[in-house]
Specification:
With 485 residues, the chain is α+β, with helices and mostly antiparallel strands. It is 49% helix and 20% strand.
């Protein structure tokens, strides 16, 4: 299984953070909306039940104010007018209540000067109210089921997820069952009815389950964040590719600049001999033509030799390639972290490694290993060595390709070794590998390794090559260690 790269890991982490933050905000917004809806419904239910309780007090107060003869007719019509009133009891003058509880409630009502609760059987949905009066006192038997004004109720009793009940002294009557998913967010509401005569609590419970979270919106947010992070990663990759291309172009320009220096030195050496021979032969031919009589045969031979030497000079010039003067000559040496220089070069060549299916290995015993070097020249040497290794790996099957870079300190020098598993260099060609204009590749100019050797020498180092077993080549660059700071 392929492990994610550092950039991929960063993108995944960024997507996770953005997705988690967005989903938390969406979930909190939905939970807040559900809580607000729950509290609104619970307050409406409490208000409706309180209004009914106050209405019952008003009914009792009305009966107490009526004349005895009028009250006798009114109390018989109450169950027809108010379905929640099951029965009306009355005590006149010196009559006695049929139950001690009614007598005790009347005494309490006279003391408090208001209606009081006689008793409650919430399991049977029944309770009784009593108001003491003169000359008559009245008691109402109430049906709790009919007390609820279902036509105005804010919730659908059988479908609503909210559980609503009326509670009193450890008893409770369930108005609607609600739903309980078992786990989730619990919202509770408890409030006393607004009538002291009916000391009931309205209790509401809402449990929001995980399935009620806005998963569609959360999944949409996750998908949107994935697209956003992918676009961000693509832009970063494009920027990195552009920077890599600019850096490669810079190194290519530096290589051409330095190549011309090597080329000029080689040309000066190789053109000196044929040009000297051309000059000598043309001068000899002139003298022979000035003799009396002129020695035409010898003059012709001298001119032929001059022509041959001019052709040789032309062949040397034919090797000259486009370039400009070498930069950085005499640039001051400075401490350079060898591992960082290698990582920069590996980064620039990352597309080439991917195209050839090569995973380079960097082995370093001392990450802080610093050498005394000119940074641009050191980058060019590393870049050329890695490029040569990649070109050598093109000649072997993809499954047999390997490339490693080893860094170590050795006898006061920093050593950088580039190993490849390519076809290697024939032993008879190893002594010439750093010669100018010598190349083992077709179309090769033969100046890359010569230039690298010259740059290494200019920095007080050296560049060498050894064959690898069972095949391949190992190029080692040695540079003086930077002074300790």
């Amino acid at each position: 299984m392929r492990r994610p790269t550092g950039q991929q890991g960063l993108a995944i982490a960024l997507w996770f953070v953005l997705t988690a933050a967005g989903c938390v905000l969406l979930a909190r917004a939905e939970l807040g909306r559900l809580r607000e809806a729950f509290e609104t419904d619970a307050r409406i239910a409490h208000r409706l039940l309180s209004q009914r309780a106050v209405q019952h007090d008003a009914v009792l107060a009305t009966l107490a104010l009526l004349q005895p003869s009028a009250a006798a007719g009114a109390e018989k019509r109450l169950p027809a007018l108010y379905p929640q009133i099951l029965a009306v009891q009355r005590r006149d003058g010196e009559d006695a209540w049929p139950e001690p509880a009614l007598a005790a409630a009347e005494a309490e009502s006279r003391s408090l000067k208001r209606a009081v609760l006689v008793d409650a059987d919430l399991a049977a949905a029944r309770y009784r109210l009593l108001l003491a009066g003169a000359p008559a006192s009245f008691a109402l038997t109430m049906d709790l089921r009919a007390v609820v004004p279902w036509s105005e109720w804010p919730m659908a009793p059988q479908q609503s997820p909210v559980r609503v009940s009326v509670e009193h002294a450890g008893q409770h009557y369930l108005l609607q069952p609600g739903r309980d998913p078992g786990t989730g967010w619990r919202y509770e509401f408890h409030k006393h009815l607004a009538a002291d005569s009916q000391p009931f609590d309205v209790a509401a419970l809402r449990v929001v389950g995980w399935n009620e979270l806005p998963w569609r919106w959360m999944l949409s947010w996750a998908a949107a964040m994935a697209l956003l992070v992918a676009a961000w990663q693509w832009l970063r990759r494009q920027r990195a590719e552009r920077q890599r291309a600019e850096e490669l172009l810079r190194l290519g320009q530096v290589a051409r600049l330095n190549s011309l220096g090597e080329l000029a030195a080689g040309l000066a050496h190789e053109l000196n001999q044929p040009l000297t021979a051309v000059l000598a032969n043309t001068q000899a031919a002139r003298r022979l033509l000035e003799d009396e009589p002129p020695d035409l045969a010898t003059a012709r031979d001298a001119m032929r030799q001059a022509g041959d030497q001019a052709k040789r000079a032309s062949e040397v010039l034919g090797r000259l390639r486009r370039g400009i003067e070498r930069p950085g000559q005499g640039a001051a040496l400075q401490p350079v972290l060898l591992e960082q220089a290698v990582r920069n070069a590996l980064y620039l060549l990352e597309p080439e490694f991917a195209k050839r299916q090569v995973a380079p290995r960097l082995e370093s015993t001392t990450p802080s290993l610093a050498v005394q070097a000119e940074p641009v020249a050191l980058e060019q040497i590393i870049h050329n060595l890695l490029t040569n290794a990649l070109q050598a790996l093109d000649q072997v099957p993809a499954g047999e390709r390997s490339l490693s870079v080893r860094l170590q300190a050795d006898q006061g020098q920093g050593a950088l070794t580039v190993d490849d598993s390519g076809p290697g260099i024939p032993p008879e060609l190893l002594p010439r590998i750093f010669e100018p204009f010598f190349s083992t590749r077709e179309q090769g100019l033969g100046l890359g390794l010569s230039l690298c050797e010259s740059l290494a020498a200019a920095m007080g180092g050296q560049l060498g090559v050894q064959p690898r077993t069972p095949r391949g080549a190992a190029f080692t660059l040695r540079l003086p260690l930077a002074p300790a700071t």
